[in-house]
Structures are given as structure tokens and as C-alpha cells.
Write a structure and sequence with these properties.
Strand order of the largest sheet: 12-11-10-9-13-14-17
CATH superfamily of the largest domain: Nucleotide-binding domain of ferredoxin-NADP reductase (FNR) module
Structural class: alpha/beta
Strand content: 25-35%
CATH topology of the largest domain: Rossmann fold
Bound molecules: nicotinamide-adenine-dinucleotide, FE2/S2 (inorganic) cluster
Largest sheet: 7 strands, mixed
Radius of gyration: 18 Å
Length: 275
């Protein structure tokens, strides 16, 4: 049982939960994730471990409410419990030893970028973060990222920071030169676009793939992704991969496989809530 110690709203549909998980907090490394099940019979949800507090024995999870299971999870209150938190899973981020890294976060993907930026800055790497949201209220973790270096904020509607997608700002930073690696996490079209921005500059680009996961241990094949023409499992070979080698078309196709069922489940949940 994992008690929820804190709950905070980061944007209109993004919530941070701080959860008891002392053994995971002890050994987790940046880039790793957990698979969470709210209770018996509930869906398994892969979530990046956004932060840890080893003394308190807690981990932080950031959840975007998009489907039935994520709405159920963010519906929990401080003091409630989550029955299963399995992890840490996945390979830790392969961190640069020195140089300049650009960390790009699109919307809720900024939560995945935060532990990477934190670890890079702690090891002496210069970090520039480029984060984006649809408008001001969708920009998350700006204050936290400012502790790691420069932050360029972009909004689609120009209500805060620069107007436009994160890719425009990333292109400008790459043109200035001296970038050793880009880490980009967010919606699939954003990670694909970031990888295309960096390709002509020959800058290594690491993306984190949010494929559908069940067991998280390489057994079920649910998280299969195509990297440079070969099948790999995001849960054990990733979740981070070279963005220039990812087959983003097949990733998008696989992510939409269960969309109809997901929409139906959410509609039923919302109808029950109203009744
Ligand atoms: P969003 O659609 O609001 O986009 C956030 C920002 O990403 C935009 O403001 C823009 O700057 C950039 N962006 C979006 N589309 C782009 C494009 N085509 N080209 C260039 N830049 C683009 O994002 P959201 O609603 O916060 O995120 C939801 C998506 O993120 C879901 O699809 C979810 O599955 C995915 N996600 C991915 C990860 C991961 O590990 N990769 C983690 C969590 C969520
Ligand atoms: Fe089952 Fe990766 S989640 S193989």
C-alpha cells in the first residue's frame, strides 16, 4: 500500500502526487519509471518517477487526466492509498559527462524532462530548457527548471513567454551552436518534430517513448517500438531512444489501437460521475 502524502494541481488537467515508496526512492535513477495500479482490477499506468525524497521515502508522479484510469488516479485525495507501485523500471538516462544539453518539454512531457535536467545540472553540464504549453496555465515546472539553468518558455497562443511551438526556440538554440545533446519529451508529433530540427545539425537527440505498457518487464510485447528497423521494448530497452532512429509512424499507430475503448470507458466514467 502506498499512501498519498501530497497532491497538487500543476495545470488544468495535470496533477502531482507525492506517494510513499521508500524502497523505490532509495534506488531510483533519473529516467526510470513505475507502473501504478490504483487498486485490484485497475489498469496499469506507466509513470515517470519525476522526483524522489529519500529521507521521507517518497516519490513524485505527474499525471495527466486523459482517460478513465488517469481520472480515477487523480481523483484520489491526500491520505488515500494506491495498492501497487512497481519499479523502478526501465534504463536510467544515459547522462552526458560534460558540455551543453538542451532539455525540451512539451506540455506534460516537461515532467519527464525535469529529473533529466536536474541530474545533468548536478553533474556540471550546462542545461538550457525549452518548455511549451498551449497557453500560460498549461506551462508546468518552470520554477523548478530555472534551478538548473536558462529556461525558454513558449506558448502556442503567446499568452506567456514566446509565441509558438518549442521547435522554433530549439532551432534557434541549435543555430547558436555548441549543443552536445538534446533531450525531448512530449507528444509524439513534438518529439518527431524536435528530432527533425536537430538532424541537420547532427546533434544527438534522445526522446522518451510513452508506448502502451502492461508488465513493464519485457514479457508481454505491448510496448514494442521500432528503432532503426528493429523491434525493441520501451520498458526494458528504453524508455529513452535515439530520436533520429525512431519509427514515429508505427508508434503513433500503436498508441491509437485502443482509442475507441478508452473513449468509451471515459464516457461511462463521466456519466456515472454525473448520475
Ligand atoms: P500539447 O499537445 O499541449 O503540446 C505541448 C507542447 O508541445 C506545445 O505547446 C508545443 O510547444 C509542442 N508541440 C505539440 N505538438 C507539436 C508539433 N506538432 N510540433 C512541434 N511542437 C509541438 O501536449 P500535452 O497535452 O501536455 O501532452 C499530451 C501528450 O503527451 C499525450 O499524447 C501524451 O501521451 C504525451 N506524453 C508523452 C510522454 C513521454 O514520455 N513521451 C509523457 C507524458 C505524456
Ligand atoms: Fe510488456 Fe514492455 S510492457 S514488454
Amino acid at each position: 500500500m502506498h499512501k498519498i502524502r501530497e497532491k497538487a494541481q500543476l495545470s488544468p488537467n495535470v496533477t502531482r502526487l507525492v506517494v510513499d515508496a521508500p524502497r523505490i526512492a532509495e534506488v531510483r535513477r533519473p529516467g526510470q519509471f513505475v507502473i501504478v495500479r490504483k487498486g485490484p482490477g485497475a489498469e496499469r499506468i506507466p509513470l515517470t518517477i519525476v522526483d524522489v525524497d529519500r529521507e521521507a521515502g517518497t516519490i513524485s508522479l505527474v499525471i495527466q487526466a486523459v482517460g478513465k484510469s488517469t481520472y480515477d488516479l487523480v481523483g484520489l485525495a491526500e491520505g488515500d492509498v494506491i495498492t501497487d507501485v512497481a519499479g523502478p523500471l526501465g534504463r536510467p538516462t544515459d547522462l552526458l559527462a560534460s558540455g551543453h544539453a538542451v532539455c525540451v518539454g512539451g506540455g506534460v512531457g516537461t515532467a519527464v524532462i525535469w529529473p533529466i535536467a536536474q541530474a545533468l545540472a548536478a553533474s556540471g553540464v550546462e542545461v538550457t530548457s525549452v518548455i511549451g504549453g498551449r497557453s500560460r496555465e498549461w506551462v508546468i515546472l518552470e520554477k523548478e527548471l530555472r534551478t538548473t539553468g536558462e529556461v525558454i518558455v513558449c506558448t502556442d497562443d503567446g499568452s506567456y513567454g514566446r509565441k509558438g511551438f518549442v521547435t522554433t526556440a530549439l532551432d534557434e538554440v541549435c543555430r547558436e551552436g555548441g549543443v552536445d545533446e538534446v533531450f525531448a519529451v512530449g507528444p509524439v508529433p513534438m518529439m518527431r518534430a524536435c528530432s527533425e530540427v536537430t538532424r541537420p545539425f547532427g546533434v544527438k537527440t534522445t526522446v522518451s517513448l510513452n508506448s502502451i505498457m502492461l508488465d513493464g518487464t519485457g514479457m508481454c510485447g505491448g510496448c514494442r517500438v521500432s528503432i532503426d528497423g528493429a523491434s525493441q521494448y520501451a520498458c526494458v530497452d528504453g524508455p529513452e531512444f535515439d530520436g533520429h532512429l525512431v519509427d514515429f509512424d508505427s508508434l503513433s499507430d500503436r498508441l491509437t489501437t485502443y482509442r475507441e475503448f478508452e473513449q468509451e470507458a471515459l464516457a461511462r466514467r463521466l456519466a456515472c460521475q454525473e448520475a
